[in-house]
């Protein structure tokens, strides 16, 4: 984000946060309606009731503006913590999905393409869309390891990258989100390699379902049928 103009800095004029909000809201509206290809600073200025110079004083170009707008829409994700590792990992897919479900996939694909060749932009894309979810799910994995559910030598970063990459791949390259059945299959595959005792995790999940009202997050991994993916 660019700094206010030198004249504003000299006079101590405060930045107009209402205008900031209007610009970001206008940007999101265009992204939602038409995608990134149709986003222009002129179009944003007209919709926000301001001028192109006012936008340039805040953001240097449309990709920085788009990332700022997306970041303004996303709330800090919560770390799944149900006490059931199977359920927590299922919720972890949803944590990564939040950003993708709030921004149309073609817009995200176009923004990523523009960011890919520039390290600073690539880092900002990751910081906006990936890293908050990655940190939240990382805390979930740490708790599962502390409970003794995951092997202490399980590669934490690889687990995080696998969960995040699946969500990213489906949203950007399959033009759809990962389904519950696909997420359950992925969780089963991951945990059979990373869990200390996978069958014990299944038994714990079963016990929770018998003693507590069913929750949306309690997908029945222990009854997973691969034919549901066909």
From TrEMBL:
Q: What protein does this entry describe?
A: HTH tetR-type domain-containing protein
Entry's Gene Ontology molecular function annotations = DNA-binding transcription factor activity; transcription cis-regulatory region binding
PANTHER family referenced in this protein's UniProt entry, alphabetically: HTH-TYPE TRANSCRIPTIONAL REGULATOR RUTR, TETR-FAMILY TRANSCRIPTIONAL REGULATOR
UniProt keywords, alphabetically: DNA-binding, Transcription, Transcription regulation
What PROSITE patterns would the database entry show?
HTH_TETR_2
Q: Which ranges does the entry annotate as DNA-binding region?
A: 40-59
Start and end of every HTH tetR-type domain? 17-77
Classify the source by domain of life.
Bacteria
Record lineage: Bacteria, Bacillati, Actinomycetota, Actinomycetes, Micrococcales
Spans annotated as Disordered: 209-230
Q: Known Pfam families for this protein?
A: TetR_C_11, TetR_N
